[in-house]
Every structure is written in C-alpha cells, then in structure tokens.
Amino acid sequence: MPVIDITGEIRDGMSGLPFPFPKFRLKPVPSPDWVEDKVWCEIFEGLHSQTGTYIETPAHYYGNDRCYLVNDIPVGRLVNIPAVILSFEPETFEISRKRTPITLEMVKNAAGAEDIMPGDAILLNTGFDIHWMESDFIDRSPYIKYETMEWLISKKPYILGSDFPRWENLDKLEGIFPIFYAADILMLGPLTNLRAAPSSRATLTVLPLKIPGTSCVPCRAILTE
User: Fold this and answer.
1) What are the residues whose beta carbons fall under 8 Å from the beta carbon of 86, sequence distance 6 or more?
2) What does the DSSP assignment read for 21-54?
3) In angstroms, what CA-CA distances link 2 with 63, 105, 122, 212?
4) Where on the phi/psi map is residue 138: left (φ > 0), alpha (ψ -120 to 50), or beta?
5) What distance in Å separates the CA atoms of residue 204 and residue 84, rounded to the nearest whole number?
6) What local confidence, expressed as pLDDT, does residue 1 receive?
C-alpha cells in the first residue's frame, strides 16, 4: 500500500507568518548533568499552533471558549478519511509574481470534481508547495475566490485542504472565511507533495499533536491509495 507524506517540513529558514508569530528555530539542549552519559535533544524554538502543516477547527474564528478544539475531535474521525484531490496546472501560478486566484471554473473542471461525495476531504493541488522554503511563500500564495468557496462548501466536505498557505486575498478581501467557518469544515494545510498521488481519489489520515486548549495544531498528514 503506497503511503504519500503530504506534510511540510518544519525547519530553520522556512517561510512563516509575520509578527507576532515567532520564527521556528531548532536548537540543541545542553546535555544535562543529571545523567551519566551524554545525550542529544533539541528545543523547538518558535513552534506555534500554525507552524508547518496544521489542522484547524472553526474555533480559530469563533474563539476557543465558543467552539470545539482540535483535541475534542475523536482520533477515529481523523483516520482513513475518503479524499479527493483537485489538481490544477502548476504553470497557472508561475506566470507572474502576483497572487493567482482559484476560480470557480478551475475547480469545476478539475479531474475528480464530479466524484466529490459529502464527507470527503477536498485537497487543492496547485503545485505551489515547491516554494515552501522561499521568503514569499505566503505573500505570493494563490487565493480562493468567493464563488469558488461557495461551490466547495456546497459539496459538504469534512476537511478542506490546500498546498498553498493563504486562502484570502488580503489586498481586496473576498470574504470567504465567514461562510467557510459557518459550514463547520476542518482546515488542513499547507500541504506538500499532492502531485505524487497517483489518482484524484485517496484516503487521508491526519494526526495532530495532542495539545489541549487550541484551535490549531501542527500535524502529520498522509495519503494512502
């Protein structure tokens, strides 16, 4: 059974959200003097709830005291989730240094769009993950048009994920997040390596770190056939 890791690497120098979010840095822990032999461990400095690939509940929008958190999701609901991968031509997002929208026409014409079932995870594959370590990975990210988000929500997915990090157009807001969070869909991303999937349908497993009290948690995400 082929297993495809679609998790982004957490490493020094990776692109990240601007201040007040901290930058990730891997640092050694000094070998403790309370053990006889020398040992090696690391400090994950700057790790926060949206570091790397993460899963998110609507509490990110509504507040932790008014909505369920990641640790409230039964782990069985995050294993072997039917998924459909909607793939777009990577060249579409490389023609300029400007942000490119995911349009309604793109998602309707993507292979696998006709096979989406309620409860699926829908994963948007643009190929933009090749820029994971670049400084403008977030600032040059594709974004989702309002009518595109309406169509995606109409398919009643359990999870919506992507290989690009910023869904909204901050320069001219599409207003996608109120309707997205109101639909009670889990967010997953940014992902990598979706282009390695052999077909548009797969099975998704998402394993977040077991950290109570937060709406977003870094996770490991894999696809199997």
Assistant:
1) 107, 110, 111, 112, 113, 122, 123, 124, 125, 200
2) SPPPEEEEPPPPTTSSS----EEEET--TTSSSE
3) 38, 31, 20, 32
4) alpha
5) 9
6) 63
The pair of structure tokens assigned to 198 is: 């052999």
Nearest to 145 by CA among 87, 93, 106: 106
Write down the residue that tokens 């899963």 correspond to. 55
Q: Where on the phi/psi map is residue 121: left (φ > 0), alpha (ψ -120 to 50), or beta?
A: beta
What is the DSSP code string of 82-132?
EEEEEE--GGGGTSSSS--EE-HHHHHHSTTGGG--TTPEEEEE-SGGGGT
Q: Cα(168)–Cα(205) distance, rounded to whole angstroms?
A: 26
Element (H, E) at 182: helix 176-182
Residue type, 158: Y
Residue labelled with tokens 């026409």: 105
Query: Which whole number is the average pLDDT over 166-170?
Result: 97
CATH number of 3-224: 3.50.30.50
Question: What is the rounded distance in angstroms from the CA atom of residue 148 to the CA atom of residue 109?
Answer: 12
CB contact at 8 A, 121 and 81: yes
**What is the rounded average pLDDT of the residues 170-189?**
97
pTM, full prediction: 0.95
Torsion of CA 185, 186, 190, 195, to 10 degrees: -70
State the sign of the Cα–Cα–Cα–Cα dihedral 49, 53, 55, 61. positive
